[in-house]
Amino acid sequence: MILTLALAAPTMAIAPRLAWAGHSLPPEFRRQLEHDANAPIFGNPEGNATLIEFFDYNCQFCRAMMPVVDAVLGADSGLRMVMREWPVLGEGSVFAARAALASRKQGRYADFHRVLLSQKPRAERASVLRVARSMGLDTQQLQRDMGGLEIAQHIQKSNALAEAMGLVGTPTFIAGSDSRFGAISSAKLAELVAAARRN
Fold first, then answer.
1. Per-residue pLDDT of the chain (199 residues; tens, 9 = 90+)
2. Strand locations in 33-177, DSSP E?
3. Is the keyword Glycosyltransferase assigned to this protein (predicted)?
4. Which of 26, 33, 116, 114 lies closest to 80 in space, CA to CA?
5. What's the rounded Cα separation, in Å, for the pair 84 and 56?
6. In angstroms, rounded to a whole number, what is the distance separating the alpha carbons of residues 97 and 105?
């Protein structure tokens, strides 16, 4: 978890720091948050509620939240979850995020994501590649794919969205026009989703 960070300037003109003031997010901003074709999706892609998570593989609270997130997804067949790789805790985090996004080309993002969040060592180049090899990923191809434009764009957009909303760290969960920061219970996370459905 982080408390302050320096981010690139947002790419969108609006800066809606509204979720914390009880207002609705502008429709275009909500579309960018909820329907980015370049963001991995967990759960039901056609679900009737969307939960967004901004996370970092080196964030201990993100690691603690993985089983909580899985429990909420398992209990809610109508939940669509957008994963926003937001590597803010150093170069190892950037490498892990790029590798995870690159693993989509080998059809292993969900598995790779969960193993990276469940490992004890800090996510660094060596530990990330060791995990990839242990899962049977082609690590040479993975490293080539890490340079893809769509990967840089995903991370850039995460930075822009986070800065526009004034996010303070990872994990941050957003549903509707509300958010939660840090480690929370599955009940609290489910309440966030239920409130988004009601509104």
1. 433 333 333 333 333 344 444 456 677 788 889 999 999 999 999 999 999 999 999 999 999 999 999 999 999 999 999 999 999 999 999 999 999 999 999 999 999 999 999 999 999 999 999 999 999 999 999 999 999 999 999 999 999 999 988 898 999 999 988 999 999 999 999 999 999 999 8
2. 41-43, 49-55, 79-85, 172-175
3. no
4. 33
5. 9
6. 14
